[in-house]
Design brief:
- It is a single chain.
- Helix content is 56%, strand content 9%.
- With 224 residues, the chain is mainly alpha-helical.
- The chain is elongated.
Length: 224
């Protein structure tokens, strides 16, 4: 995954990309959604007023069948996740752009009849975008900007890593990622949890030492 410096460069370069790809990446990075979950989103799944995304399906491609949606990986994968305000703002801009294209194409629009049933990420004529399209774009993007290679799954790992190392409890992280239970999260990110656990010991030692030092200082003042 990217460290803070690499993420910063990635985000700066991302600002020069089209709104669709910016929104695509930021949803995945900021919420920890699986690639298929991001690509399976429809506008009806986004509540801008509440600042939430409803994850209830995933996008998949099979030779001979094409692109389609199905239930998520597990029952626990069906979830509601909050999104940062910056991501909501990106999505609003993307939606305005999306609706403009829909209006311009008119009868040639190949998306849903109802605008809310349109997929958030589509082809130019409104069809559901191929789930691999984010991989294709991302590969070109990191090469063009001389960044280390990553995949959409890297964004999911980044989201989990940043949440865990910032002190977010494991149950909350598991719910955000759509893991059926905390065991999965614990196994996958055990190295981070151990690191965070070590930090709690260091923090506790610092707290105890400071408490003792303050008490000794107080005793010295009282003794004078």
């Amino acid at each position: 995954i990217y460290n803070e410096d690499q993420v910063g460069k990635f985000l700066v370069y991302l600002e020069n990309e089209n709104i669709k790809h910016r929104a695509m990446v930021m949803i995945t990075l900021a919420t920890g959604c699986r690639r298929g979950e991001t690509m399976g989103l429809q506008w009806k799944h986004i509540n801008f007023d509440a600042g939430i995304l409803v994850i209830e399906q995933t996008s998949q491609y099979l030779s001979g069948k094409g692109v389609f949606t199905k239930d998520p990986k597990t029952q626990g994968s069906k979830r509601t996740v909050t999104m940062p305000e910056s991501v909501a703002t990106l999505l609003k801009t993307h939606k305005a752009d999306h609706n403009g294209k829909r209006l311009k194409l008119g009868d040639r629009w190949a998306g849903a009849k109802n605008a809310d049933d349109d997929f958030v990420f589509t082809t130019w004529e409104g069809k559901q975008a191929h789930p691999d399209s984010i991989n294709t774009w991302l590969k070109k993007f990191v090469i063009a900007n001389e960044l280390p290679p990553i995949t959409p799954k890297s964004f999911r790992h980044m989201a989990a890593t940043y949440l865990i190392t910032s002190g977010t409890d494991i149950r909350t992280v598991a719910g955000k990622l759509g893991h059926a239970n905390t065991n999965t999260t614990t196994v996958v990110y055990t190295h981070l949890l151990k690191s965070s656990e070590k930090e709690t010991a260091d923090k506790m030692e610092s707290f105890l030492q400071q408490a003792a030092d303050k008490a000794k200082e107080k005793q010295k003042k009282q003794a004078k």
